[in-house]
Known about the structure:
CATH topology of the largest domain: Glutaredoxin
Helix content: 25-40%
Distance between the termini: 39 Å
Strand order of the largest sheet: 2-1-3-4
InterPro entries: DEP_dom, GLR_AS, Glutaredoxin, Glutaredoxin_subgr, Grx-like_ET, Thioredoxin-like_sf, WH-like_DNA-bd_sf, WH_DNA-bd_sf
Oligomer: single chain
Number of helices: 8
Domain DEP: 146-204
Shape: elongated
Organism: Elysia chlorotica (Eastern emerald elysia)
CATH superfamily of the largest domain: Glutaredoxin
CATH architecture of the largest domain: 3-Layer(aba) Sandwich
Structural class: alpha+beta
Number of domains: 2
Protein name: DEP domain-containing protein
Pfam families: DEP, Glutaredoxin
Amino acid sequence: MSQNLKGTVVVYSILGCPHCMRAKKVLNQQNVPYTDIRLDLFPHIKDAVMERSGMRTVPQIYFNEKLIGGNDAFQTLVSDEAAWNKALDDLRKNALPEGSLIIPDPSTAVVEADLFTIQCEPDEYFALVNQMKADIVRPQGGILRSYKNAFSGKDFVTWILEKKELDKQRAIETGQALLDHKFASPLKKGTSFKGEDELYLLLEDDGGGALNGGTVSECVPKSANQLGELLRKMILKLYSVFLSEDGKVSSFFFFFT
């Protein structure tokens, strides 16, 4: 039977955190009801929560407005019978002062599935290349060698001056940006975009690319930090499924299924 408390226990946690799981298991064993606030679902309050506690890790456990600390501090409290009973007695007698903790509106939670999805931010140069394919990209070359998807620097500058109403310098800078973003490459390797008669190849017709390069992405590339954060979230998701309730034991059966 749950403890009859006037007060509130709040656990700030994240998905798959072993220390969070251990703390919550003990609260369940002690029949202490608690409010679990996952900071991965409420990222907009994370900085404020960290600033209030002075901690950069989770769990962060509060008994009313009093910060108990992380899992180690909480386990120490539970193991001290006198201190634990006093903490529970305070919760039985005293309610959480209004506004003393950051309790987010449930409607502001992030959709959990979105945590593991890479959002596509359309790449402006991908759209530009598609327009070029319709207007100026065509087979070019001579008898000995031809190129299916090629364009000249001069044609590009003339075309973009008309389409985008840019000055010539800005048109050349845009051509160089296509090279820098790996949407095109100069036929003569190692040269910059000059906007003259030199030929440029779209990535899919550049035989010097990686064998598994495929076509270009229509999305802005993600940074290593962004991809690393997504990988971290996926690992924590696996932890949440395969870690034991106390966060100490992992079942590796899923690696072989």
